[in-house]
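Risk register update: the risk of archive-format incompatibility is retired. Evidence:
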Amino acid sequence: MDVRIHDILTRNARLEPDRIAATLGEERRTFGELDERANRAAHRLATEGVAHRDRVVWWGPTDLAALEVCYGVTRAGGALAPVNPAFGEQEAAAALTELRPRLVVAHPDCEDAARAVATPLGLGVVVTGPDWLQGAATTVLPRVGDAEDTCTVFLTSGSTGVSKAAELSHRASWLRAVAREHQTGAPGVAGEVVMFGYFHMAGWWMTEHAWAVDRPAHLVHHADADELLWAVDRWQASSLYCIPAVWERILDAGGGADASRRGGSLRGRSLKEVLTGTSRVDLALVGALRDRFPGAWMSVAYGSTEIGRGAVLVDGDIEARPGSVGLPPPAVDACIDADGELLLRGPTMFTGYLGRPDATAAAIDADGWYHTGDLATADGDGYLTITGRRSEGIRSGGEWIAPVEVETAVRTHPAVADVGVVGLPDPQWGEVVCAAIVPRPGMEVPTVDELRAHVAPMLVGPKQPRVVVEVAHVPRTDATGQIRRAHLQRRLVAGAGGGGSA
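Archived output:
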């Protein structure tokens, strides 16, 4: 199957060149315009020495120029490697060292930082702007390589903080884009709002997924309630995916978010798909979304940079199977090994970690199974439930404890706004369960005894917190909102935050 990820753009530009492909605020690109600019970008980058199998870093905020950079890179035979524009110089230097690119392409707002980091590493910097493609040819460069070549490289650290660069092939990325896990709920061509930034795999997947079903992708600068709802209303978008934390912001904003600045209330009435995900979604959130967007089709998705979508719980099953992440989508197989770890396998899987053969071998076994690092159970019908992270399990008194299970119980306490659970070293127990709690405004963090009494009907004794600390916030990953447990644990071990123990 000789496919390239930019074939999706090429097809749409040929069939409907004047249709909107992407928007950001009031700015827009048609498929024809974007296709032409991607060809120009390919020629511009080729003059900078970008060739087959080279990597090119995109360093910038969400911007329509990122699209022409990406598909210019892939048409030149290279692979795009975006970095988080919020990185400090030390993080960025580590990222460029890991990615080993041929070139850095920077947004004008990031030029100074990009040059400060790239120049000492001997890397050239090209800056996008209104005239960056001026004079470049519009012809299509000769097709090079094959579908197994890498088209994108994404830095991924999950909740561990250890960066690895996951390589995705054209074939895997194309299959992710064209796959549909459901038929019902598809709302036609009204458009999808893309919550994620373009340093994250999901931002690119959502864009390409929209294009594959002939929908425009509506981008936002920031994942806040005001801008997301404005984008829905401005473009009458029909689909919006948000992680639970972002949906909570939208629900808190109500039906009239920032009406004074936007000149009218923001309601998102055009939404026909209300989608969410991560490893666990509370039914209270589902109920609140159904009330806020009546009649909208819902799903809960679970996945990762390495596999794409690994499981989907579709509307009709959500209330019937609370806490589940559903079934693997077509072409993805799942199994649970003897240690309770979820393994996934399929053609959407990543190729490996750039320059990390040991990490690749640890992630993909000899039979082609990707070891997710997530612990899971499956019911009699094969529906999966994620119970925690294998690397984050707490061993206390010889018992293995899943932090996610403890967090679910602790969150039911009326004084708890947010919580992160980790294990702390203890000479008697090996580790003890520690609950780092953000209290609700005007309320006090419960004592250890109060909290243990509250969760006792839900958790056996060893799983109940023996240490409770108050924190201002629970550290989470930027894009997916996963708790950065290693970071939280280091803070607590070093003595950050007070608290009690039992």
